[in-house]
């Protein structure tokens, strides 16, 4: 556990790192250095002298270590939704004779929105959405792209990346994997699984901060053939040649679009300093121990809520979700009593299990508070029923 490396709110057990990771203790100083010593003293020279222009690929390699990616295959920048759009477009262009993007109903809505919007723009492409357990059976000769989030954002259900990627390839399709709830939560082996494309965010388990940039992975075998519908200036082979026509950069760097968010990247850099010291396999083992302890304690004390995460720890990510009719109000009551999770409509109470800063004691305290809120019906207070903009 590396709890001392984070700034956590006093008096709270923080079980929401799967939504927004806490502040790394070194991040404020790192951002301050970037602002004062780089931006402040170097001004525009920071792009060269402080290495700003190279940050997207340098940080990409550091993230790549955590997701089983080859060196030079990950670029950082823009948002996760933008990356989904780019990668699905690139994959579709590589299978022009096929017209289906296949996904599942457990995928994050933004991914589905992006794919649907792209399909509408192209005109002859269709987004097909089936239940998670129906994915393998639906992969067929009409599918160009299999677009899945490895870990379901609501339930924590985990897809078998290697098996589904193999099935997609056997059918002639390409894969785009969203790692929003995988990167920093469990071992990912993109190269080992043969994934074609992947993307993710850095503000959840990676603790890069609110608005931290997304990342994109392009398998080296596709690096110089994949094309992106978003032909941004910094994805050009020579941005400062200022050519009127677009020539894509080599490899994953062509997935760069807009100007890198340097201040956000400074905070992410500080977060990755912590990750450089982490063995993800050990982290995963610890996550399973804590989540099993949490489930056992909550279920023994709270018969009114139902586990919706897979019971097999190998089949779920690093989160535990329960279903309760009054889940929103119950979560607000929990937060008021010092346990922070979050709510996902229509009735899911979600708890992130993040071993970097959670202990057995934290788990036991959280389970005790949940039991109190449920058995004493503390959620049945009108004050907890008013919904905020962010749930």
Helical proportion? 25-40%
How far apart are the first and last residues' alpha carbons, in Å?
28 Å
With strands numbered from the N-terminus, the spatial order across the biggest sheet is 4-10-9-8-7-5-6
Strand content: 5-15%
**H-E order:** EEEHHHEHEHEHEHEHEEHHEEHEEEH
Q: Point out poorly predicted stretches.
A: none
Q: Major sheet: size, sense and barrel closure?
A: 7 strands, mixed
Q: In the CATH hierarchy, what is the architecture of the largest domain at level 2?
A: 3-Layer(aba) Sandwich
Tally of separate domains: 2
Report the CATH superfamily of the largest domain: Type I PLP-dependent aspartate aminotransferase-like (Major domain)
CATH topology of the largest domain: Aspartate Aminotransferase, domain 2
- Count every helix, treating DSSP H or I runs of 4 or more residues as helices: 12
Oligomer: single chain
By secondary-structure content and strand pairing, the structural class works out as alpha/beta
List how many beta strands DSSP finds. Answer: 15
CATH class of the largest domain: Alpha Beta
Output the keywords.
seven-stranded mixed beta sheet; Aspartate Aminotransferase, domain 2; Aspartate Aminotransferase, domain 1; 2 domains; globular; 14% strand; 391 residues; alpha/beta; 12 helices
């Amino acid at each position: 556990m590396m709890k001392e490396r984070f700034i956590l709110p006093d008096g709270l057990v923080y079980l929401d790192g799967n939504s927004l990771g806490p502040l790394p203790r070194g991040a404020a100083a790192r951002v301050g250095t970037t602002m004062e010593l780089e931006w402040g003293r170097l001004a525009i020279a920071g792009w060269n002298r402080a290495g700003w222009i190279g940050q997207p690929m340098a940080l990409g390699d550091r993230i790549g270590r955590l997701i089983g990616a080859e060196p030079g295959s990950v670029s950082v920048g823009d948002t996760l939704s933008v990356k989904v759009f780019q990668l699905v477009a690139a994959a579709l262009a590589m299978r022009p004779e096929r017209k289906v993007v296949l996904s599942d109903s457990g995928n994050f809505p933004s991914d589905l929105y992006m794919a649907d919007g792209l399909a509408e723009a192209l005109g002859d492409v269709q987004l097909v959405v089936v239940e998670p357990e129906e994915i393998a059976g639906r992969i067929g000769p009409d599918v160009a792209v299999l677009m899945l989030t490895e870990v379901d954002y609501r339930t924590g259900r985990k897809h078998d990346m290697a098996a589904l990627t193999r099935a997609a390839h056997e059918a002639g399709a390409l894969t785009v994997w969203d790692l929003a709830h995988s990167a920093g939560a469990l071992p990912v082996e993109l190269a080992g699984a043969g994934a074609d494309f992947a993307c993710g965010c850095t503000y959840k388990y990676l603790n890069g901060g609110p608005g931290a940039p997304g990342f994109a992975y392009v398998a080296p075998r596709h690096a110089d053939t994949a094309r992106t519908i978003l032909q941004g200036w910094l994805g050009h082979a020579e941005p400062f040649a200022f050519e009127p026509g677009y020539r894509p950069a080599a490899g994953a760097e062509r997935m760069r679009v807009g100007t890198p968010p340097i201040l956000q990247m400074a905070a992410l850099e500080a977060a990755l300093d912590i990750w450089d010291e982490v063995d993800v396999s050990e982290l995963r083992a610890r996550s399973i121990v804590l989540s099993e302890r949490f489930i056992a304690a909550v279920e023994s004390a709270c018969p009114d809520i139902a586990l919706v995460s897979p019971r097999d720890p190998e089949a779920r990510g690093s989160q535990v979700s329960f279903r309760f009719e009054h889940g929103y109000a119950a979560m607000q009551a929990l937060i008021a009593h010092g346990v922070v999770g979050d709510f996902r409509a229509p009735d899911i109470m979600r708890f992130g299990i993040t071993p970097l800063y959670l202990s057995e004691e934290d788990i036991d305290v959280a389970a005790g508070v949940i039991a109190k809120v449920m058995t004493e019906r503390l959620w049945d207070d009108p004050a907890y029923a008013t919904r905020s903009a962010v749930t």
